Amino acid sequence: MGRKQKGRCVKRNKQINVGEKEELVQAPHSFVFHRGLPGEHIVELTKDFRRVMEPFTASALKIRKKNTIKDFVSVAGVLHVSHICIFTKTELGMYLKLCRLPRGPTLTFKIHSFSLARDVISILKKQMVYEEAFKNAPLVILNNFSGKGMQLKLVASTFQNMFPTINLTTINLSTIRRCICLNYNMTSKTIDFRHYAIKVVPTGLSRGVKKLVQAKIPNLSKCQDISEFLTKPIASESEAEDDETSHVTLPQTLSSRGNHANSKSAIRLYELGPRITLQLIKVENGLLDGEILFHEFVHKTEEEKLAIEKKREAKKKLKEKRKRIQEENKRKKEIQKQDHKEKSLKGIQKKKESDILLQKIAKESAEKSKLEEDDDAQYYREEVGEEPDKDLFQTKIGTKRPHKHMRYKSKKAKLDKS
């Protein structure tokens, strides 16, 4: 027989043929979903945030109401998931919870205001949204997170660890096509979340030369000669090229046209959305449950903290005790199950032995009856002097046979009369 060929699905799925890359395994992955009261805006905001977290997130994650956090934690290790982003909606407002798997901490933010990605893009005069930008993780830019309090450092490290780290010596600048900007406002204690697409354009070129460099077809209807088109005065297309702070000297040659190594280029940002204004409310030590390390509005005294700690320890001990009792009951049930199984096997064995014994007894009784019949036939020959009939000494089931001497006497009397 010939070798069986692989199907189309196996050929398309490269992960079946080739193992996962190390950089893909080490990159932080995330789950993004929503909980609480239903609403169109929270669903759209969840989808927009998944778009921000691409490509290392579950873009088509299906959530059911019966799913719990334990369900996500149980599959997180297999899928290399390190963070969970939960959007919740209550009667008081909307919140965002960032959880580090598997044991925390958990950061809770209140969403003061937000704008969906479709609304942000619709108000822009120039839009730049393309799928190629979402094939690589975004660059994280933090501002004003060096204030007082360990909570700001924790927020900064949490957002940084949600995305892959960048090696400055080996990074390919052509893969950096998006960025996330987080700005902390010290007066209002809020965080401005923004999401941009990055575009690098060469500087110092006229509009006509730039079109030729970027392989665009120029409009020569108003020019007498191509030289007139090329010798037009330099005119910038945006304020980004006029602003010298946006000019950079490229250390590498980018994939976009006109951006060569050691040449000057300008950086443009096109907002992709969503816009979110966050405020840190609470920091918990565990995964959605644990010691509260920071709270913006509730402040506890040392006595209250000690009482809460004692209550948490008592709850933990009670949980461990219930777990031990449950394990002990489970062990007892396993022992009872094993004993019942052994008894069942013993009963089956005894039944087999009894059946064998009954068969043996029946066989012996059959042999005994056969011997008795042979003795009766011999006795008949000696007394009567002729061969007995075949059916004379065969026993019938359910009928009681008279004693052999009575049978012989009655038979002899009949023969004498005849």
TrEMBL record:
Residues 247-259 have a biased composition (Polar residues). One of its GO terms (molecular function) is rRNA binding. Coiled coil: none annotated. Residues 398-412 have a biased composition (Basic residues). GO terms for biological process: ribosomal large subunit assembly; rRNA processing. GO terms for cellular component: preribosome, large subunit precursor. Residues 28-289 form the Brix domain. SMART domains: Brix. It comes from the Eukaryota. It holds the Pfam family Brix. Residues 237-259, 316-350, 366-418 are annotated as: Disordered. Residues 325-350 have a biased composition (Basic and acidic residues). InterPro entries: Brix (IPR007109), PPAN-like (IPR045112). This is Brix domain-containing protein.
